[in-house]
Amino acid sequence: MGCCGSNDMRESPTIAENLYGQNDRFLRFVERRVGSKALAEEILQDAYVKSLTSAGSVRDDESITAWFYRLLRNAIIDGQRRRGVESRSLERIAVEPGEAEPLPDAALMDAVCSCVGALVDTLKPEYAAAIRRVEVEGSAVGAFAEEAGITPNNARVRLHRAREALRRAVTEYCGSCAGGGCRDCSCQSPRPA
Length: 193
Description:
Elements: H1 6-20, H2 23-34, H3 37-54, H4 64-95, H5 106-111, H6 114-120, H7 125-136, H8 141-148, H9 152-174, H10 176-179
Helix pairs in contact: 2-3, 2-4, 3-4, 6-9, 7-9, 8-9
Keywords: DNA-binding, DNA-directed RNA polymerase, Sigma factor, Transcription, Transcription regulation
Family: Belongs to the sigma-70 factor family. ECF subfamily.
GO molecular function, one term: sigma factor activity
């Protein structure tokens, strides 16, 4: 190899072609270890990017394929560690006691615009289910997440989006009445179907 790296430029496409030519094999290798094709594809893409910057670390007595498998194993382990930390953090948040939410006041619930209840039915089904389960029935977000088959974080996001969609629907439907918090509803609109 020359001091200017002219041979490196010629070898790089050969290394990339060699690795990409084995793409299906690499993907199966990663997928067997992580159990998800989407996650395996993500890890493999990250490994390809890393290989472009780390190809110079290949030892003279090591084949590029063996080196790339080692890079994939390390990427899998790093990914598992990251997901483990995220999972433990979410579990800790779900278990830690937070501020107790006040119980709804029955008189206040009666005074709230009856349009709200009817407008829940106009939301996307997954939003309506989130609102009913958590806001109306008082279920914990974690319990709702488990029932819906989603992560607690995803449930929180879904509930936030559902609340925002309901807020927009009430504002659009009730107009100025909604500006006052819909207490003592004075809108004379027919109720949504």
